[in-house]
Amino acid sequence: MSSGDSVEAAEPGPAREGAVSLVVPVFREAENLAALAGRIRDAMSAAGLEWELVLVDDDSGDGSEAVAEELARDLPIRMEVRRDPPRDLSLSVLRGFRIARHDRLVVMDADLSHPPERIPDLLAALDTHGDMAVGSRYVPGGEIDRDWSAWRRLNSRLAGWLARPLTACSDPMSGFFALDRRALPEPETLRPIGYKIGLELMVRGRLRVVEVPIDFADRERGASKLNWRQRLNYLRHLQRLYLHRFGGWVRALSFGLVGASGLAIDVAGYFALQWAGLEHRLARFLSFWPAVSWNWWLNRGFTFGERPLQPAPRQWAKFVASSLIGLGTNVGSYTLLTSFVAVFDRHRWAALLCGVALGSAFNYFASTLYVYSRQMERRRSG
Fold it and tell me: Rounded CA gap, 167 and 171, in Å?
């Protein structure tokens, strides 16, 4: 993570008991910063709270730095600019935690969807009830902007439901929360990707969460950063957290689902090539390659996505080799069982299932220990 450049009102002073650092990740939000700072100032003044606003910008290039510099003339505002890739909201928040002056931390978005007026309520809940206070849309008293479409509401609910086995929080997607620095997990244990740093902290830190109802407003200025790439990153993030919480069973299930999708591609290609006029043995040979490549790619990105990346061509070749040996294990066990065990000769479907199970088990362990091994990670740390 880059140390970046900094714009601030004054030299950092000592942390003070009861004061709060507001950490806001920023990407192309120049037109919202003045309104955000003004509402925070009013809310903090009304509550009698000492505060600072730490803006962590992902190298927006939209004038955000100049706006922050102007605001810093009169308000306790600092901006840190992360100039090294990747652009990532979660990494920006973690950077903000590192440079924040105070132990009480609040995270919120820059687009004014989170009401600054509820910051004192989050802090009060944090001080009396738990390790983390979350601004929630889905507890009694919480609201979502009425202009939200049915699709956006469904998308939000579905994302929350996918995370429910990981946390009892009713709004685990919330990006508006307060916590004490001393409750944070160790930095080296965190593996966030995308924009749901709150969920990362809840799960890996096993934090006690209290929810505070908020009215969630849609942005009025600027463009949303939520796109299909962010949705894909969320699924990758969930997979990492499921692995962390539930261990190898989740990895095995993921490997099996990937294998099933590859089998569907294999079978579809096999019949499509025959329909196009190819001889069935040639069709069978050719249909294997897109299927095995698909399996390799998905396992590289999801099943073993938290492991260090190896050069793609070499890893693909290792996966193909292990798959061919797994196929041999599959066919070989079927042949042996049907040739030498009478019950399997009478019930060949059972021999087929045994072959598939043995071949799949070989592929899984070969992938875990060889194809996607942690060897590179050990070499780096050694």
Answer: 10
